[in-house]
Design a protein that fits this description.
Layout lengths: L5 E6 L1 E2 L11 E2 L2 H16 L9 E6 L7 H14 L7 E6 L6 H10 L3 E7 L3 H7 L5 H14 L4 E7 L6 H14 L3 E6 L7 H7 L8 H17 L3 E4 L2 E3 L6 H6 L5 E4 L4 E4 L2 E5 L3 H9 L5 E6 L2 H12 L6 E2 H8 L3 H14 L3 E4 L2 E4 L1 H5 L1 H8 L1
Parallel strand pairs: 1-4, 1-11, 2-3, 4-5, 5-6, 6-7, 7-8
Antiparallel strand pairs: 8-10, 9-10, 12-13, 13-14, 15-17, 16-17
Length: about 375
């Protein structure tokens, strides 16, 4: 049985850009928000007939940085474009410092039932290094605000591998997360993306990246602490209580279909992959001129799509069932990449048991290298 598709909405506004972020976003401005919502209304109105998403995910950027009136309008646009009866999970990304009780109430009244809270760290030095706008107290206040509004499914995002921040600070972050008792935790290692302020500082020898051994030690600390707290690792960087896994992300990690709306949003629909322009001005102009906002589109050949599905599915800790994979893609993963699989198994980076392929403990930390061999 095919999984229901997903709808992603990219809200391209932030109070300011974090030092490490390369996602498309621009500083908040009410006028820009209005033009964005006008264009988004037109894009949502053009969704395919009988498009019934099972998940909706509003990311960015910082969706919670919208003004109250514009957030209200965004929620109404989604409700108008999508039959919410079919939506099992409606998520939004929220950053501390941008949430108010009124916004939290608007979200829950509209039907949003899952929040991903971008804490990243509770440590003041870490927050300053990353360029976050919030304080530790504001992060905790935002979490409590969501609970008071009635949210029963809240996730917290953390970053590890921060230069100058060792085990002690990470352990404190994890301890505070566990005390707050969220349903979901995402832990991503800091990446130095091209064009970001952190990468510029590194290239000028002002800071150094954390070495691989330290990153692995921190990763294992995270896995052990969250496991002891009842948060099961279900993907390379994601942990959840049973039944609280992010359905929308599981769709991505299963090779499912989704449509993205907003500037820089990507889609995979009916065998086509396409992405919108990475510019709010160009995105809005396209709808004003009645032209396409797409920056690119491509059709994946069946074998290429099957390889991509294999790699994405291996992100899940439960791995890939061989029979299900063949039924879903039309390909046996051993015929696709049998030699590579055998080699990676010999290196103890993959393991195959009971007709199921998965990353090993060693393979989890070097997953990008494993995937490069399979794609």
């Amino acid at each position: 049985m095919k999984t229901s598709p997903g709808l992603y909405i990219h809200v391209p506004f932030c109070v300011r850009k974090c030092h490490y972020c390369d996602f498309y976003s621009i500083p908040c401005a009410t006028g820009d928000q209005t033009f964005f919502l006008d264009a988004l209304d037109r894009e949502l109105a053009a969704l395919p007939d009988r498009f019934f998403p099972g998940t909706v995910y509003m990311g960015g950027g910082t969706p919670s940085s919208l003004s109250v009136d514009n957030l209200k309008r965004l929620l109404k646009l989604v409700g108008k474009a999508v039959d919410l009866y079919h939506v099992q999970e409606w998520s939004i990304e929220v950053n501390p410092g941008t949430l108010t009780p009124e916004k939290a109430r608007l979200l829950i009244e509209a039907g949003v039932n899952r929040v991903s809270l971008g804490v990243q760290s509770f440590d003041p030095e870490n927050l300053a290094f990353l360029g976050r706008i919030h304080t530790r107290d504001e992060a905790e206040a935002a979490y409590l605000m969501l609970r008071e509004a009635g949210f029963a499914n809240v996730g917290i995002d953390l970053i590890y591998g921060i230069p100058g921040s060792g085990h002690a600070k990470l352990a404190k972050d994890l301890a505070r997360v566990i005390q707050l008792n969220p349903e979901h935790v995402s832990c991503y290692c800091l990446i130095f993306e091209e064009g970001t302020p952190l990468t510029e500082l590194r290239d000028r020898d002002r800071i150094s990246e954390v070495d691989d051994e330290e990153e692995l030690d921190q990763y294992n600390l995270i896995r052990d602490a969250l496991d002891c707290a009842g948060l099961r690792q279900y993907e390379i960087s994601n942990f959840a209580r049973v039944g609280r896994e992010c359905r929308h992300n599981l769709l991505y990690w299963s090779g499912g279909e989704y449509i993205g709306c907003g500037p820089a949003a990507h889609s995979h629909w009916r065998g086509m992959r396409y992405g919108n322009v990475r510019s709010l001005e160009s995105y809005c102009a396209a709808f004003k001129d009645k032209s396409s906002p797409r920056e690119f589109e491509e059709r994946l050949e069946p074998e290429a799509k099957a390889r991509e599905t294999l790699v994405m599915s291996l992100r899940r800790c439960d791995g890939v069932d061989r029979d299900f994979f063949k039924k879903d893609t039309g390909f046996d993963y051993r015929k696709l990449a049998g030699d590579q699989i055998d080699w990676l198994c010999s290196l103890e980076l993959l393991e195959e048991r009971d007709n199921r392929l998965r990353l090993t403990e060693r393979g989890l930390f070097v997953s990008d290298s494993v995937f490069a061999e399979l794609i």
